[in-house]
Amino acid sequence: MHMKKFLIPLLFIWSFAASHDLWIEKEGNRYVLYYGHLHPKNGDEKLIKYKPEEVLKFECLDVSGKAITSKFERSYPAKLEGSCGVVFALFSSGYWTRSVHGLKNLPKDQVQDAIESWLSYESVKRINLWSEAYTKPLEEDIDIVPLENPLKAKVNEKITLGMIIFKTSVKILIWTKESRSSFTLQK
Hints:
This protein is mostly beta strands and 187 residues long. The chain has one domain. The chain is built from 1 helix and 13 strands; from the N terminus they run αβββββββββββββ. The strands form 3 sheets. Strands 3, 4, 7, 8 and 9 form a 5-stranded antiparallel sheet that branches. It has a 4-stranded antiparallel sheet with strand order 1-2-6-5. A hairpin with a 5-residue loop joins strand 3 (55-61) and strand 4 (67-68). The relative contact order is 0.19.
């Protein structure tokens, strides 16, 4: 069975650490951006409501990899209408700070007894049609790109991805599962 959709979390390490997922679903003639738990465990909610301004980009791309005019509804959940080869979303929940009192969604200078802080970015691509143009990065600083057509991959079949980090390339092996992917670095 071929995968109908293929999601690539760009900042997959953070995604696993935070245990939250960002994904795009096709609903009728539009795409909807969700955040939460794709596979909720006991006590977890499937959907976590986000602020519309946390969606920094929600774009429809053609088979050449260029953004095309589409209707973007900045709401919760964000919605996009268009005939897209790829749908791309960039999301930021802002600054997170760990302190001796726990984790807070605030900058370090606003948290008492702060230990560490980071600015969270997450991205996701939904590939609907394959094009060699999708082997090129969409973002300059960090991006994960398929080096082969992921739509031909079967469940549990490995595919190779390229990762661009500040203009440095790294190859990544991925094996597909029903809806979640695992990553290992290739040496």
